[in-house]
Amino acid sequence: MLNTINEFLSAPTPCLLLVHLDISRLESAANELLSTYGWPRLSVGQELGNVLLSEMPQRRSRAARRWMPARLGDVAPGPVLCTEIDLLFDPTLNLDPLGLLRDVSRLCQMVVAWPGSYRGDVLAYAVPDHSHYRTWRKPKVPIAVLE
């Protein structure tokens, strides 16, 4: 994994997804990166959840879209480690999580812990039985599948 990270850091790539279905494996990788590189960590679910609590339900999607670039602007130019991204997939927010992450990565280089899989040019969030399961064909973002 560290070789992939070093390649990412030496290239002009704004976003890298670390992909694995096992949340504990993602957490382990995140902790390894934090101890190795000392990057700031953005717990998307925790921080965004706190912001959305004060918003009316009909305004939450817009609030989420505004929060991401503002928050990442605070840690620009990065890199920053984004974890706990599950809230971005909540259907009530009506977001394209991958598109949002790609867009905001132009402001701040990021490594994202992505709970899902990548097989045959298809990126998936979660497992098919999960209520928020989503897929993207040819996601146009560098992906490192963790072992």
Characterization of this structure:
The protein is α/β, with parallel strands linked by helices and 147 residues long. It has one domain. It contains five helices and seven strands. It has helices spanning 2-10, 23-37, 44-53, 60-73, 97-104; strands at 15-20, 41-43, 80-83, 110-119, 122-125, 134-137, 143-145. Strands 1, 2, 3, 4, 5, 6 and 7 form a seven-stranded mixed beta sheet that branches. The mean pLDDT is 95.
Throw out a few tags for this protein:
alpha/beta; 7-stranded mixed β-sheet; 7 strands; 147 residues; 38% helix; single chain
Question: Topology of this structure?
Answer:
Layout: H1 2-10, E1 15-20, H2 23-37, E2 41-43, H3 44-53, H4 60-73, E3 80-83, H5 97-104, E4 110-119, E5 122-125, E6 134-137, E7 143-145
Parallel strand pairs: 1-4, 1-7, 2-3, 3-4
Antiparallel strand pairs: 4-5, 5-6
Helix pairs in contact: 4-5
Give me a quick take on this structure.
It is built from 5 helices and 7 strands; from the N terminus they run H-E-H-E-H-H-E-H-E-E-E-E. The radius of gyration is 15 Å and the shape is globular.
Assembly category: single chain
Structural class: alpha/beta
Helix share of residues?
A: 25-40%
Q: With helices defined by DSSP (H or I, 4 residues minimum), what is the helix count?
A: 5
Rg calculated over all Cα atoms: 15 Å
Task: Count the E strands.
Answer: 7
Give start-end ranges of low-pLDDT stretches. Answer: none
How would you spell out the order of helices and strands? HEHEHHEHEEEE
Distance between the termini: 9 Å
- Taken together, the total number of domains comes to 1
- The overall pLDDT, averaged over residues, is 95
Shape designation: globular
For the biggest sheet, the summary is:
7 strands, mixed
Strand content: 15-25%
